[in-house]
Amino acid sequence: MNNQMKPSNLSKPSDCLCHIEPGELSPLPAPYEDFNQVTIPPLNPEKVKHLETSLDDTIAIGIPKPANKEEEEALVLRFLSGLKKLFEKENNWTFLQPLMLSMEHCAKCQTCSNACPVYEMSGRKDIYRPMFRAEVLRRIYKKYLKPGGKITAKLTGDIDLNWTTIARLAELSYRCTLCRRCATVCPIGVDNGLITHEIRKLFSQEMGIAPKELHDKGTVQHLRVGSSTGMNPLAAKDSVEFIQEEMEEITGYKVEIPWDVEGADILLIHNAGEMLAWPENVGAFATIFQAAGLSWTLSSEAVGYDAVNYGLWYDDVQFSRVAVRHADIARRLKVKKIVMGECGHAHKALTVIADRLLTGDLNLPRESAMVTLEEIVRSGKLQFDPLRNDFPVTLHDPCNMVRSMGIVEPQRRILRKIAPGFREMTPHGVENYCCGGGSGFAIMSGYNFAQWRNLVGSRKKFLQILNAFEGEPREAPKYVC
Questions:
Q1: pLDDT digits (tens, 9 = 90+) for 204-231
Q2: DSSP state of 42
Q3: Cα separations (Å) of 395 from 25, 63, 111, 411, 425?
Q4: Cβ contacts of residue 176 below 8 Å, gap of 6+?
Q5: Which of 180, 323, 426, 470 gives a 20 to 30 Å CA spacing to 238?
Q6: d(CA 308, CA 275)
Q7: Residue 222 to residue 208: CA distance in whole angstroms
Q8: Angle in degrees, 0-180, between the axes of helices 369-379 and 279-291, rounded to the nearest 10
Q9: Residue 268 C-alpha from the chain's centroid
């Protein structure tokens, strides 16, 4: 299908606006050349016949088709109501200023497109340009909300606002990982990642449209049960007890993971998914903290043992509810600071974005575990044998932790001290590429979205990793931190 696409095309009816043909994706090197012909499996017509499917080859949200014309018109009005609120200080005081700057000052130079891994790896499909979805919102805003907009639209860029436009824009906001690499290269400072976030927010807060993995099974379950994984406090404690036993069996070192210690120096909050999928990470933190003699604790209170905050990606209200719960739990435990465990978006959520939200005694010091671990390594409290890690090692820079927060060097100073085979990816640091799982993609797998994510969204990172280990024997052990 022709890659050339204008924002105005989004409002024109068609069965599929964009289709990725075999061989169109950016090629992978040997021995993975066979993946160049892999396609995204088609959607099951029977399962999606009541859903909007006209954007591209996949579905991220699963938006029901309106029952009639009246329902379509009502949804358009709700969209405009939500759009208006994005530009009102009382409704969007947290992000109004950067949103206005990004909406008003884009030069359409397309510098952002060359920085976007989704656009590049898709075979350079126009609808995946960072500017494309931002320009759609920009045109709607200027035409339908600004005085004289319907007259000036003929000169500045026209678009029709109908249900097709809205449904496609909602889906299109979930073809971006919010990595904000585009924002770092923009010569003006336009943040298309922020605009995409605001589009998602509009659909969630005003129209109740969001991926189930982020909302129903994400923030709603987190607040109701205690964790987005579905683990209640008792299940979390059982998991940690199992981890203690496993670590002692592996290392011969007896680990006692503390719970609810009032007045501890540190409240460590893990991504609770680690307890289930990567329990060795939770065990490693406990082993290191205990051996280093730190004063620390976990919280067994609902929400307090799961650092994730999916609201960061799509809904400010849900984000705020989770962030305030995290801070309040730490306040009542009387800890000196919160340390964020291994989770990029949780870092950004509680340490940066929540900073304007948390006031008074809720605004406790919050720190990345990368900083805490570096202090342990540099202190000499523990002795490390680099020769035990003498194999090829590279480092992934999480977008939220590195590009959005500037935590670049602590993890590198650790690796240089303990891993003689460490080598950087190209590029790295704030210029690194997204893993492809950001903004919720890692947990979104409904319909055929996981296949789109793996073939398109994660493709650039996979290529980066292959290049980092280029020349190493295939059978040699390798590790991505």
A1: 999 999 999 999 999 999 999 999 999 9
A2: P
A3: 25, 38, 26, 9, 7
A4: 118, 130, 133, 192, 193, 196, 439
A5: 323
A6: 13
A7: 18
A8: 40
A9: 21
